Amino acid sequence: MIKNVHGNTVDHLGEAIVAGRYAAGASIPPEPLLGEELGVSRTVVREAIKSLAAKGLLTTGPKVGTRVLASDHWNWFDPDVVIWQSKAGLTREFLRDLQDLRRVVEPAAVRMAAERATAVDIAELETAYEGMRRAVEEGGDYVAFDLRFHQGLLRACHNRMIVQMSKALSALLRTSFEISTSRKDGPRNSLPMHRAVVDAVAARQPAKAERAILVLIDSAREDIEAVLASRRRLPKLDMPARLLRA
What we know:
Helix content is 69%, strand content 3%.
């Protein structure tokens, strides 16, 4: 997606903050200097600062100026923040937090999905699974269907708050899927685990569905640890997902 001047300015400043070029507690340069540096108007800079403040990266005040907030304040459910972190480098702490979040949210959601999923929900899971299987067997975009599968699980629990969370979780989930997919035979090995989740949800077996998703999450954790240990270059989330070869 091509961004406008505002979006590019937000990206430039956001990446600089997440990468540590502006330390927590430090003041960023005043609007005129930033505008000159970036080749944009003061109005564009001002609007970009407002956007970054809304994402929790900056705080502004009449006496303190515009200061960088510590990462604890950043909105980690914001896709832009996740992408900026991937550009700066996906840290072990970030990936650990992501896996912990999945282990808390997904098993509970899948239990509810096994109790509440409609025929339409299950058909959507089957469609996503079939897309994953085709990508493994014939080549294609496995990550897109993997993401669709897990979003479908969260929607199938029919809890409005979790459904809303599924939108925010997309960038975080894609981070996990991109890394585990980069491991040799990772997608092929994960297919039976996904199949077990669908079957348990369709059979209305909450405990079995929960066990199946935990096996899948823990397998993803092992894949991520293996990729980190190999020191292989991690994927960049601002780029299209890597396509599988047949």
